[in-house]
Amino acid sequence: MKNNKIAFVGGGNMARSLIGGLIADGYQASNIWVADPHAAQRDGLRQAFLIHATAGNQEAIAHADIVIFAVKPQALKSVAQDIALALQKKKPLIISIAAGIREPTLNEWLGGHHAIVRAMPNTPAMVGSGATALYANGQVSKQQHNLAESIMRAVGLAVWVDDEAHMDIVTALSGSGPAYFFLVMEALEKAAVDLGLPAGTAHLLTLQTAYGAAKIALESNESTAALRMRVTSPGGTTEQAIKVLQEGQAPALFNAALLAAHRRSTELAELLGASP
Length: 276
Ligand SMILES: NC(=O)c1ccc[n+]([C@@H]2O[C@H](COP(=O)([O-])OP(=O)(O)OC[C@H]3O[C@@H](n4cnc5c(N)ncnc54)[C@H](OP(=O)(O)O)[C@@H]3O)[C@@H](O)[C@H]2O)c1
What we know:
Blueprint: E1 6-9, H1 13-24, E2 32-35, H2 39-49, E3 52-54, H3 57-61, E4 66-69, H4 73-90, E5 93-96, H5 103-109, E6 116-120, E7 130-136, H6 142-153, E8 156-160, H7 166-175, H8 177-194, H9 199-219, H10 224-230, H11 237-247, H12 250-273
Parallel strand pairs: 1-2, 1-4, 2-3, 4-5, 5-6, 7-8
Antiparallel strand pairs: 6-7
Helix pairs in contact: 7-12, 8-9
């Protein structure tokens, strides 16, 4: 599996994270190609990972078994149409990480009948702790399915969704999710500083608490509600804080926030798919 030739079209932040993860996972640098218009970006990738880097998309994809589209969604249509003919001849597995571009739209831009996996990673992929949802169209073989999963697993967790519409929910949950947790951490830190704790201490304790809570939840079979109740002793301090959060409608607010993000994700997908 690790001998497949992989070409990245677009060598920005997300491609860099994925390439780093793949190399750390045992993929050979000589099998990885990246195309990006910026010389500095290409030099940086070559020096860091000893991979092939070129300004030409056609050159990068020439021998690829897997082509990963890692350009901004707005750039994807022209990038895809430019290399569609070359891809029609070889029919590699296509993986697109571009947010919001639906599989039938990308397939049409590429001339049709391609095996396409859509992946929605998030920014913690940059530190190897990403959460990625994957969706495969009907042309993707079992072997290609495994390949796509192993690539995204190089930067964290990877889960499959069967219904492409779920990618908009994923975008609202884990795609935008790091920002929600940053907001909660920001608010907690400020509250502790307002109570008199030194800023540096408040910062460190907040981050480690968020990390520890996520680690317990990941390692436990219990629901998050059960874990919350376990640390909420009757008559204790946590109970007082949770009561304030619930009376202030914190769960309903998160519900409304996710609804808004989901609505926007759907709108953007329609706009991007219809772009001239
Ligand atoms: N970052 C995230 O957390 C995240 C999460 C989920 C999904 N994604 C998706 O991942 C994709 C990449 O995001 P990113 O943050 O890595 O973006 P990025 O840092 O802007 O990287 C994209 C790179 O592709 C280059 N590019 C532009 N046109 C190109 C072309 N015709 N051929 C080859 N390369 C070209 C860009 O150059 P220019 O700067 O000149 O345009 C840039 O260097 C996006 O579609 C985004 O929706 C990102």
